[in-house]
Amino acid sequence: LLQPSWFASEFGMNRVVDAPKTTASVDESRQLVDLLNSKDEAGGTLLQRLHRDALTRFCFGYLGRIEEAEDAVQEIFLKVVQATTVPEHFRPWLYKVARNHCLKCAQRMRGRDGQIQQPSQIPEAMTGQLTRLVNNEAQARMAEAFAALSDDQREVLRLRYAENLSRGEIAEVLDMTESLVKSRLFEGLKKLREVAARLESR
Which pTM value belongs to this model? Predict the structure, then answer.
């Protein structure tokens, strides 16, 4: 899959870059929604197969501990299978449920531990994407540059480049306008380039 052409023009790139492949095909996503809405046990099995790994990575980005992320995913899946109605536009809805759950978990962890252990590196799925976008910085420098971003910037970049959500889907997940998503993506990538350039010159 290729990034849509608007990406190249928006961010001043002279070429498009590869995007991570989506986890589920359109037919599988429709089947999943049908199974979940009919309360078929096969829906839970398909949900695990299609989305467990991606959601574990996503939750780790908020919680910083793989054990906490894995527990969160199982709790999120329980919420999904117990939902009265699962929307056709499933993926952004799933990530919105996951994000809200992780934010509550993070708040509990702060109260319990004083602070959350931050992930030591950026999601593996983002490494190739974002290193190319900041002139092929090494992964170690990329991790340091990524850590320099604001939480809001990191969040939209993870949703876009690790989870491959569109700007419209990200807007749904974060309850904000698509124009604000575009702005945060632009500013996040700009800061990545700036920080990477400083690290390169050290």
Answer: 0.73
